[in-house]
Amino acid sequence: xxxxxxxxxRKIARYHLLEKSVCRRCGALNPIKATKCRRCHSKDxxxxxxxxxx
Length: 54
Ligand SMILES: [Zn+2]
Hints:
Elements: H1 7-18, E1 20-23, E2 29-31, E3 45-48
Antiparallel strand pairs: 1-2, 1-3
Zinc ion (ZN) is lined by residues 23, 25-26, 28, 37, 39-40, 42.
């Protein structure tokens, strides 16, 4: 398998890595669109967003 050399694909992959929510209760990663934690069903989610390195 070839490594991902396509910069567009890398950008998409990184974008998806950043688009996550972290549960404040159990620390599980959830989709950014999730309103409830998939593990403990808590609604106390915070977005895990970081600046992209420029
Ligand atoms: Zn949770």
